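ok so i was messing around last nite and threw this chain in just to see what happens. nothing serious, just curious
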Amino acid sequence: MTALTAWIERGRTVTGWLGAAACLVDLGIRLYVANVFWKSGLTKIEDWDKTVYLFTEVYHVPVLSPEWAAALGTVGELLFPPLLALGLAARFAALSLSAVNVVAVISFWHVLSQNEAALMSHFYWGVMLLVTLLHGPGRLSVDRWLWPWIESKAGSAQRT
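result:
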């Protein structure tokens, strides 16, 4: 075995380890972001009157009434995080939570613009959602196992 061959083999080994770590990073990103939005949704349903008050007086959601904004935001924060965490329709969930995140920043800009740490939290969540949106949910996801099965069923249905 030459020195070059040994280096190539080491490189393949390291690449294998990195590939294994990548699926854990994908899962960690999905679980972290899902947890953030899920907890926010749970907070909103704890006291609905308080939530509607906040959407009326504090959050300035454009176009929607405070009641509709509160309802849609809460549904988004409770529906999409479990999908993201499981990696089920993960790109759709990431896109939907990205929309929730953008609306939150727009609606709360008068406060976030004065609080760099809070604004950066939204930025980081957006970047993490972008990873899932562009890269997919990774190997440790329901999508990874479900889509090949759906495609095989669709292919067999086309052949009959």
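not much to say yet. Residues 3-159 form one domain.
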